[in-house]
């Protein structure tokens, strides 16, 4: 099974996606997601200019060897662009191998360890009434676990709150997806950590009072706190029994999590911006987190993330794979197969893709009663409709960024 053709396909149905499509000499096709939100074209170049020429003629069955070759032969290791490109090759090869075997990918990863994957969705609102409406709507859609984000009094914008406004103006349509605004330049938002820390515990108190003690609730701090602020927030949220507090600090300083951990029993989740096991070394061996947030797409694929999660399992740390809409349906499918197979699955983030995206990517996963299942089609269960993809050319898009009241740039 030799690789005959490797194509990098960029499409922007509801947002930009980068997909690698491999075709073998026996006519099988495999897909891999290489989407890096706001920096999509750098992965396109990495793949098209540097990786595609290395793939032609290779044995598609040799997944581990191809991974090690791409990682080590580049000399320049790690980083989101490199690891997203390697991930795309890796997932496309797993898709091919599973299709060749006539099995869904999870069977090749050891078989199903569970019947489905508990998923969480994103409820948000600029104030409590709007947040409650969003929680109700998620419950109606079947979600059994819900992330809670709200506006903070005095701030115009806050991470994670759905909006009706894009750079093109107020569309009237509510945008619940993670932003990467289609615009020539990034949008500036405002931020005040003190106002946020004062406001948030009351929000969780209100949500618990309204929706009761049993529903798993999550929150994303989006790297905005110092370690001592994160420790304070974790402690303040303990009465509301969070499933996790995510990205409480910019965790590239892994040792900082020691301080947070010493002060709170609120479970911690980290890693959506990480790309190798080395980013987790201290966090895992010292048991400073409870959930690994990496996506298959940004961590070198199924091969590499499976190893990270098996390492984490030795320390009773579970998976919480990143699943916003900037992970394409291909990346989501790979995550579902991996999540179904590993022992230490925790929860899967799941934001629904838009209708145009679902027309471009034909998918076989199911969503029943708050649980995901990747389906039983051979491979990962996603096919790319090339004609449909061609209708949506790339659009310049940037993530927003933050400034404090005095103009200082802050983490977004
Ligand atoms: O590209 C950035 C988004 O993926 C990020 O803002 C989403 O934090 C996120 C999450 O937890 O889904
Ligand atoms: Mg996050």
What does this structure look like?
This protein has 412 residues and is an alpha/beta fold. It has helices spanning 40-55, 63-73, 80-101, 105-108, 128-140, 193-211, 227-237, 256-263, 281-285, 301-313, 329-341, 355-360, 386-389; strands at 3-11, 17-24, 29-33, 117-125, 145-150, 163-166, 169-175, 181-182, 188-190, 217-220, 244-246, 268-270, 291-292, 318-319, 348-349, 361-363, 366-368, 371-373, 382-384, 397-398, 401-403, 409-410. The strands form 6 sheets. Strands 4, 5, 10, 11, 12, 13, 14, 15, 17 and 18 form a 10-stranded mixed sheet that branches. Strands 1-2-3 form a 3-stranded antiparallel sheet. Strands 9-21-22 form a 3-stranded mixed sheet, with no helix packed on it. The mean pLDDT is 95.
Topology diagram in text:
Elements: E1 3-11, E2 17-24, E3 29-33, H1 40-55, H2 63-73, H3 80-101, H4 105-108, E4 117-125, H5 128-140, E5 145-150, E6 163-166, E7 169-175, E8 181-182, E9 188-190, H6 193-211, E10 217-220, H7 227-237, E11 244-246, H8 256-263, E12 268-270, H9 281-285, E13 291-292, H10 301-313, E14 318-319, H11 329-341, E15 348-349, H12 355-360, E16 361-363, E17 366-368, E18 371-373, E19 382-384, H13 386-389, E20 397-398, E21 401-403, E22 409-410
Bound molecules: 2-keto-3-deoxygluconate and magnesium ion.
In CATH, what is the homologous superfamily of the largest domain?
Enolase-like C-terminal domain
For the record, the CATH class of the largest domain is Alpha Beta
Total strand count, please?
A: 22
> Could you say how many structural domains there are in total?
2
Percentage of residues in strands: 15-25%
Our count of helices gives: 13
Bound molecules: 2-keto-3-deoxygluconate, magnesium ion
Radius of gyration over all CA atoms, rounded: 21 Å
Low-confidence stretches: none
What spatial form do the alpha-carbon principal axes imply? globular
Helix content: 25-40%
Alpha-carbon distance between the two ends: 44 Å
The main β sheet shows up as: 10 strands, mixed
In CATH terms, what is the fold-level topology of the largest domain? TIM Barrel
- How would you state the average pLDDT, rounded? 95
CATH architecture call of the largest domain: Alpha-Beta Barrel
